[in-house]
Amino acid sequence: MRRVARGRLLLSKAPSSMSASSKNVFLGVDIGTSGTKTIAIDAAGNLLAQASAAYPCHHPKPLWSEQDPADWRAATFKTIRAVVKKAELKPADVKAIGLSGQMHGSVFLDKSDDVIRPALLWNDQRTAAECDEIETRAGGRKKLIKLVANPALTGFQAPKILWLRNHEPRNFAKLQKVLLPKDYVRLHLTGERATEVSDASGTLLLDVVNRRWSKPLLSKLELDASLLPACYESEEVTGKLLPAVAKQLGLSTDCVVVGGAGDCAAGAVGNGVVQRGVVNSSLGTSGVVFCHSETPEYDPDGRLHTFCHAVRGKWHMMGVTLSAAGSLQWYADALCKTAGGKSESFDKLVAEAAETAVGADGLFFLPYLAGERTPHADPLARGAFIGLTQAHGRGELTRAVLEGVTYSLRDCLDIMTGLGVTAKEVRATGGGARSEFWRQLQADVFGKRVVSMQADEGPAFGVALLAAVGAGEYASIAEACSATVQTATESKPQAKPRRFYDRGVEVYRSLYQSLKDDYRRIAELTS
Ligand SMILES: Nc1ncnc2c1ncn2[C@@H]1O[C@H](COP(=O)(O)OP(=O)(O)O)[C@@H](O)[C@H]1O
Ligand SMILES: O=C(CO)[C@@H](O)[C@H](O)COP(=O)(O)O
């Protein structure tokens, strides 16, 4: 059923309603930090239906971050049922499902596959001591990078496993398996304990160059390899729906679940970033700047991650700022309640910001609400408004948040550029990229053309394409992308704001340098 050319043809002439027998539908599920989004697409990449469900994130202590895996499972089942209903799909229509999700999170399971404690997330900063332990056990930072291509960072999964061993030994004694968020959902869909290379890269336990678990590092950390699931390539089939699950979802037991991808690689596939020349910028809870690599490439200072791409035999580099659109979410929730007690809408806040001057009249925002990864790798960093005056109102505050987050993405982009990555265009994705104003701001801060995508479904679209490849609809991910991915709007850098932001980013950068010792003192004060 390989029908590459058909996919291309259908792109320009997509049927609005296919006959029951002709449907070949693929689902993409993205288990994000703020919620889960599921989409259904046809073979040409046309969106048939989408549904989303939100859930909370818990912060039991400052800079800690946890979620209940049961919320991801419930949201996935609910949204799959919703798209099946909305698109009026018959069980046999859905050929494959792709899973994507927030990376690095650790779901600790006991021998009955029950969750031992809430999951520790990608933006949880409690593991600084365990990162030091990993570097020491590996024989130093250089040796660690040789084994797994990356330095130890607090968000990654391996330090979380060591944290459990060091701080909750009774829970560690029960531990049989550690899964990533999307892979916990896979277990409930298929009964299989499996992951794939792009998400596995973010555990710090994958030999990224050879795309397999690093036995040498596992042994140095005294971790049993049986804790980890089987590791596949992203488009490979990892299992089929369990009979009871298929019945519950209105799908068939012939429906396969492919490896899928971590949300960064999935978003890149969804935006067609499967070759050099374009980079992806994502404004989700986190912010990510992502480039494709033909071979593993490294930032010698370890500020960018070197991970496997969701494309077989390819890699990527990315910089990750921990509170991107998440900063806007925090700001709306903490400081912008309406009279009815709800958070002000993002559209209203952004419209107010758009009315204010470039640079928010000298107000800066540092978006380090959850510490920071790129460029500072500083778990103690904190957020800040700097430069407030009595002339500032809500519009300037919002603008400062949007600008601060975008400066942080520029930090990531500039590191990449410094390593020789050239990009003629930035492809914008994530909830924040829905805003035309924020896309234009990116163009002005980056000094590059920023485009939005026709299928603005981010990682969910990327893994739906991986599902289509896994089911044999396309011969390769590159073919699936070239048949279905199209850009939509374009924002070009404007000369005056661009000049301002080139100077503004220097002030922004020096503010962190001025504050970093104080962050340490704040940590001592509050510990
Ligand atoms: N219209 C909008 N304008 C600006 N920002 C928006 C808009 N809609 C959503 N966002 C931002 O996008 C975030 C959600 O992005 P999303 O990519 O869904 O996150 P995640 O994948 O982390 O769950 C919201 O918290 C909000 O900050
Ligand atoms: O930590 C990373 C990537 O390294 C984050 O990108 C997470 O994967 C969370 O994604 P969002 O929920 O923000 O989309």
Automatic annotation (TrEMBL):
Residues 280-470 form the Carbohydrate kinase FGGY C-terminal domain. The record marks D30 as: Important for activity. One of its GO terms (biological process) is D-xylose metabolic process. The keyword Nucleotide-binding applies. Keywords: ATP-binding, Carbohydrate metabolism, Kinase, Nucleotide-binding, Transferase, Xylose metabolism. Coiled coil: none annotated. Substrate binds at M103, H104. The keyword Secreted does not apply. Its EC number is 2.7.1.17. Residues 26-270 form the Carbohydrate kinase FGGY N-terminal domain. It catalyses: D-xylulose + ATP = D-xylulose 5-phosphate + ADP + H(+). Signal peptide: none annotated. It is an enzyme of class 2 (transferase). GO terms for molecular function: ATP binding; D-xylulokinase activity. The active site is at D263 (proton acceptor). Catalyzes the phosphorylation of D-xylulose to D-xylulose 5-phosphate. Belongs to the FGGY kinase family. This is Xylulose kinase. The lineage of its organism: Bacteria, Pseudomonadati, Planctomycetota, Planctomycetia, Pirellulales. The gene is xylB.
